[in-house]
Amino acid sequence: ILLFILGNRKIVDASCIKLGMIFSLFSIICITVFNKFNINNNFTYSILISSFSMGFALFIPSLFSLLSKNRHENEQGKIYGLLESIDSLAIFGSAWIIKKIANISYTRISLISLILFIVSYIIIKKFLNNQSISHEKNN
User: What angle is formed at CA 37 by the lines to CA 31 and CA 41, rounded to 5 degrees?
Assistant: First the structure.
């Protein structure tokens, strides 16, 4: 619903990507802090997990849209395949790690998630900066 509303207001894909990343980053930081200080509030966790999911609900479709607008049709399939392969690899890797380290604490999981998310955020930020630079050169 949020993506539909933002699309109707002519919010550009790059802004939706940034907004989604901010929602998700804020949520994972809060979850990490809550886990670190043993704050147990199921309602708050539900809100934070929903916020994280909402951020990704903005991020993923907006990223695919941005990529499809800036690439030739023959490159789009390669990019989508690469993104899906990375996603599948991440799911497999996560399941493998969880199975191997069954007693890992929630604090450690959230800290690892936060670190990986920050690395991903930096990469996406550089990508968006490169996109805006190449878009300005084309105009």
Answer: 60
pLDDT in tens, 61-102: 888 888 777 777 778 888 788 878 888 888 888 778 777 777
SS3 content of the chain, % helix, strand, coil (to 5): 85, 0, 15
Question: Is pLDDT of 139 > 60?
Answer: no
Asked if 35 and 107 touch (Cβ cutoff 8 Å), the reply is yes
The H or E element that residue 102 is part of is none
Two structure tokens written together for 8: 């109707």
Q: Is 85 exposed, middle or buried (0-12, 13-18, 19+ CB in 10 A)?
A: exposed
pTM of the model: 0.74
